[in-house]
Amino acid sequence: MSDAVEVVDLRAARTALREHAPLVHCLTNTVVQTLTANALLAVGAAPAMVDAPQEAGDFAAIASAVLVNVGTVNARTAEAMRLAARSAGAAGTPWVLDPVAVGALAYRTALAGELVALAPAVVRGNPSEIMALTGAGSGGRGVDSTAGADDAASAAAGLAGRTGGVVAVSGEVDLITDGARTVRVGGGSPLLTRTTGAGCALGALVAAYVAATRDPLTGAVAAHAHVALAAERAAATAAGPGTFAAAWLDALDAVGPDDLAGADVRSA
Fold first, then answer.
1. For residue 55, how many other CB atoms are within 10 A of its CB?
2. How many Cα neighbours within 13 Å face the side chain of 119?
3. How far is CA 263 from CA 1, 53, 192, 195, 229, in A?
4. Alpha-helix runs per DSSP H in 167-215
5. Among 207, 217, 237, 191, which Cα is nearest to 24's?
6. Percent of the residues in the chain that have a pLDDT greater than 90, as a whole number
7. pLDDT of amino acid 1
8. Which sign, positive or negative, has the C-alpha torsion 65, 125, 205, 209?
9. What is the pTM assigned to this prediction?
10. What is the secondary structure of 201-213 as a DSSP string?
11. In this structure, are residues 246 and 252 in contact, taking their beta carbons and an 8 Å threshold?
């Protein structure tokens, strides 16, 4: 590993995730539920998909971590997300916000603004989404970003200051900041962008790692490094996006503490 060793201990993070097997409560979009659950199982966490308003608040209080992903949001799931975020905050449960396509559509953009005010431990999105959350941009093309991670660096640092947490910006090189410290994670594969739900699954892995490490910066960096390293390994054997998705899940399972410690991670 590079000089980020002074900021995060990826070996310890991977060990902690395996030891604690955190239960991650996922309020996520309907397109990605199966891949998200399988990715959590592959890294050693436990998934739960509880999105009924009657249950979401109660379950958030007993889960190890919560993921709130607004990808296919509607009035019912939006209320469940509000309840889960409030309950997680009251219980001291770390939760992650994935503001999918925020900026492109008014309803989800307003909801994301409400959720940001509830102080997520980590906000994870693409550059256009992070910029739209701060008013620095108008959003991307649906779920696709029209900006690079470095374009969103200032917005990410400002958003981290507002939430008191961490902001992770996905890109060719991921950028992760708590407003004072910034870490970049390289590696990965373009095939990740051709796999439906890979980014959404990353949000769930961030939640799992934050629960295991009890440190949002370490957890976010570890999850991004784990996903990138597994993608590199999967791409080396895949014939295309279909075989890549299966190989990626296998590679997520195979990455160990020593592997993660050698990931392309550096302080900025």
1. 14
2. 13
3. 6, 39, 17, 22, 7
4. 198-213
5. 207
6. 90
7. 41
8. negative
9. 0.94
10. HHHHHHHHHHHHH
11. no
Across residues 16-28, what is the average pLDDT? 98
Contact by Cβ (8 Å): 124, 97: yes
Beta-strand pair 166-169/122-125: parallel
pLDDT surpassing 50 at residue 243: yes
DSSP H/E element including 24: strand 23-27
Is the per-residue pLDDT at 26 higher than 50? yes
Residue in the block written with tokens 């960096």: 221
Query: What value does the mean pLDDT of the chain take?
Result: 94
The count of C-alpha atoms lying within 13 angstroms of the C-alpha of 175, restricted to the half-sphere facing its C-beta, is 20
**pLDDT score of 104:** 85
Q: State the CATH class of domain 3-267.
A: alpha beta
Residues forming beta bridges with residue 122, ordered by sequence position = 96, 166
Burial of 186 (0-12, 13-18, 19+ CB in 10 A): middle
Token pair recorded at residue 152: 């969103």
Asked whether the CA dihedral 111, 113, 119, 122 is positive or negative, the reply is: positive
220-233 pLDDT per residue, tens:
999 999 999 999 99
Q: Are 173 and 215 in contact (CB under 8 A)?
A: no
Amino acid letter, residue 95:
W
Query: Contact at 8 Å (CB) between 168 and 224?
Result: yes
| Of 128-137, 144-153, 167-176, 199-208, minimum mean pLDDT range | 144-153
Q: In the chain, where are the structural domains located?
A: 3-267
In the numeric block, which tokens belong to residue 246? Answer: 């299966």
Q: Which amino acid is at 221?
A: V
Q: CA 114, 116, 122: angle at the middle one, nearest 5?
A: 150
How far are the Cα atoms of 31, 83, 96, 150 from residue 102, in angstroms, in the given order? 17, 20, 15, 19
pLDDT score for 268: 77
